[in-house]
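Record type: monomer structure entry
Structure origin: computed from sequence
Chain ID: A
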Amino acid sequence: MKVSIIGTGTVGSAFAFRLFTSGIASEIALINRNQSKALGDMADLTNALAGASKTKIYSGDYRACKNSDIVVITAGPAMKPGQTRLDLIKSNYSILKSIVSSVMEHNDDCILLLVSNPVDILTQLAIKFSGLPAGKVIGAGTLLDSMRLRSSLSLHYNVDPTDVSTFVVGEHGDSMVPIWSLAAIGGIPLTAFPEYDKEEMDDLFMMARKSAHYIKQKKGATEFGVAVAVQTIVETIYYDKRHIIPVSSLIDGYYGLENICISVPVIVGKNGVERCFEIPISTPEKTALQDSAKILESYLEKLDNECQ
């Protein structure tokens, strides 16, 4: 499998390290606006394994991404102080359009994996810019948010994280929605688990939702958690695991949603998003998911008015 990483900033570099050490990619191409940074990452990664890895890693311009199986896009500026979410979307609009156009010059059947924020909006735009089937364009979405909540629950109840089953859906942002109605520990519904307390669960969710903000305050950027989430998606595709994970993809006809990229649990395999289906969430959760979609739709409408 060949994986190209567009953008070798904090997140791109962390993911490149995890991918390189995993050994699942036969080739990794690093592409960055600052080519010197990509060259430095390439040398650093090569030194990390002292030649023990059989993975071929190199950097270059967009020609380096030719014949990629998966192209991971982490490039794009983060939100600056005083900048609105719409400002960020507008600045990333032209950047993403240029990136996708350059990638598609050298690939006609790859899977695009969006990590840059706002990821749901950019995933929807990438479908438009690439012309790829919708299932081949995936946003990292709320997988990381779900991982954060699962980790918080495992620490709270002192159980193995793999025994915790829970999803966060909706926008990868402030309107994300925890699906408490299906949450379970070891197959036991969360509401029936010993010492369950709804207020404590709500607090844990708020901590998970604010986790990225806390990390950015302390160290400037998130990197390790998102790298693991992206690696999880890549491995799910590579091994054709057909895992059910919450990623951002085009939803049309489920949960009362139409033509919007947002995170809900979908089956992911070697062809990308292979199947969407409607899980039986509670009525308030479904309403909150629809409200989250409306927020994304409003941004897309404003974007259409200002970028056409």
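Annotation 1: Residues 95 and 211 are 27 Å apart (CA to CA).
Annotation 2: The chain is about 45% helix and 20% strand.
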